[in-house]
TrEMBL record:
InterPro entries recorded: Glutathione-S-Trfase_C-like, Glutathione-S-Trfase_C_sf, Glutathione_S-Trfase, Glutathione_S-Trfase_N, GST_C, Thioredoxin-like_sf
Name this protein carries in UniProt: Glutathione S-transferase
CDD domains listed in its UniProt record: GST_C_family (cd00299), GST_N_family (cd00570)
GST N-terminal domain: residues covered: 1-83
The species this protein was found in: Pseudomonas brassicacearum
MF annotations from Gene Ontology: transferase activity
Alphabetic keyword roster: Transferase
Length: 223
């Protein structure tokens, strides 16, 4: 394998990269990193001193690539299949990058703050974070009024970002029923084979998620 992904199966940012890898049908090795293990954390920091995953090591070019959006840009340039995740048209690509940032900054960030508060038992005032999630739900619903995918005619980087962000955010703040476009989009995302595969791989680790009880039963296999 020319690529090794350093990641954790429960991490939403790792989900984002995994979706891109599966969309491109890229062969790669997986290295699960437990940040609570000092040796494994040091192994990750040797690649990326910030110590956050995901990180990809390209054995061919002896290159380490960090940060989920940059990793997907890298994959799209060197390992893309027929369907690029970043469109060739500049204006469309700009729209894709915009919505990628919206999902990362205004879904992922507040949801992670809410999750961290639960892990730490801080019981902080999270009104602003929850309000931000609802604001973005409204923005997404309007954006999707005339689009099947978030930022282009085809599945893109923006959708790689949206899928894990919405999966986790929806366990914290329910998507309002009146956001019919957003709810329909969420169903399309969850039925995407690449997304289904990521969720299947994350399922054995759901018990580590502080809001596991709020993950809908539909995401668990039937007996």
């Amino acid at each position: 394998m020319s690529l090794t992904l350093y990641y954790h199966p429960l991490s939403s940012y790792c989900h984002k990269v995994l979706i891109a890898l599966y969309e491109h049908a890229v062969d790669f090795d997986k290295r699960i990193i437990d940040l609570g293990n000092a040796a494994e954390k040091a192994e990750l920091q040797a690649l990326w001193p910030i110590g956050k995953f995901p990180v990809i090591h390209d054995h061919t070019g002896q290159c380490d690539v960090a940060e989920s959006t940059i990793i997907i840009e890298y994959l799209d340039h060197y390992f893309a299949g027929q369907n690029r995740l970043i469109p060739g048209n500049w204006d469309t690509a700009l729209e894709v990058r915009l919505w990628d940032r919206v999902c990362d900054n205004y879904l992922q960030t507040p949801l992670q703050q809410i999750v961290l508060d639960r892990i730490l038992g801080a019981n902080g005032n999270l009104t602003q974070q929850r309000s931000t999630l609802q604001t973005v739900y409204g923005m997404l619903d309007r954006q999707l009024a005339n689009n099947s995918w978030l930022a282009s005619a085809e599945f893109s980087l923006a959708d790689c970002s949206a899928a894990p962000a919405l999966f986790y955010a929806s366990t914290l703040e329910r998507m309002p029923d009146e956001h019919v476009h957003l709810n329909a989009y969420f169903e399309r995302l969850m039925n995407r084979p690449s997304v289904q595969r990521v969720i299947d791989e994350a399922r054995p680790y759901f018990s580590l998620y502080p809001f596991e009880q709020d993950i809908p039963q539909r995401f668990y296999p039937r007996p």
